[in-house]
Design goal:
Strands 2-1-5-4-3-6-7 form a 7-stranded mixed sheet. The protein has 5 helices and 7 strands. Residues 15-43 have low confidence and may be disordered. The protein has 181 residues and is α/β, with parallel strands linked by helices.
Length: 181
């Protein structure tokens, strides 16, 4: 009986590991293809950013159309995500470097504004980025989110040039932003 249990557990682990490796290889291939911006031309078809209607911290409605014709970096984050909190100061620094040539928007995943603001105040980024609330977590779901953080690099025509899953440092951000300039 114990031997059957051990064999069942071992087979489950092997099968689960195979599925995990397969999914990671598929995701890695996506990231490799999208990261290889030197092979991207304007005639290729890209996914479009999903439309959104969210609110800023003052309760003002913000839509994707408000940024028409501007390159964007859309970052999905949450205060419970340590990688997200590490990225926010780098995004703030990048926004200062890029000035108005790219707009970086941090979209929170369904947390109260006061909770968000407490963390951004502590990080010193509250007034350095555009923060939007997504109370229904609809943006994250619309981009097929499954990791944290998730970041879209979007060109001026609304094409998603890179969909980065997971954290980045400032160097990687600078490299990826070149695909939308």
């Amino acid at each position: 009986m114990r031997k059957k249990f051990i064999i069942t557990v071992a087979l489950t682990l092997i099968l689960g590991g195979g599925i995990f490796v397969s999914l990671n290889e598929s995701n890695s291939q996506e990231n490799i293809q999208s990261a290889g911006t030197e092979n991207i031309t304007r005639t290729e078809k890209f996914d479009q950013v999903p439309e959104f209607v969210l609110e800023d911290w003052n309760g003002n409605e913000v839509t994707l159309a408000d940024f028409q014709g501007k390159p964007l970096i859309l970052n999905s984050w949450a205060v419970w995500c340590p990688f997200c909190l590490d990225e926010l100061p780098d995004f703030a620094q990048l926004q200062e470097e890029l000035e108005d040539s790219v707009i970086i928007i941090a979209i929170d995943r369904a947390e109260p504004t006061a909770k968000q603001k407490k963390f951004t105040d502590k990080l010193g980024v509250t007034d350095r980025l555009l923060f939007l609330n997504d109370p229904k977590d609809s943006f994250y779901q619309s981009i097929g989110g499954f990791s944290m953080p998730e970041t879209l690099f979007v060109d001026a025509e609304g094409n998603i040039r890179i969909h980065k899953r997971g954290p980045m440092d400032i160097g990687e951000m600078r490299q990826k932003v070149q695909s939308i300039l």
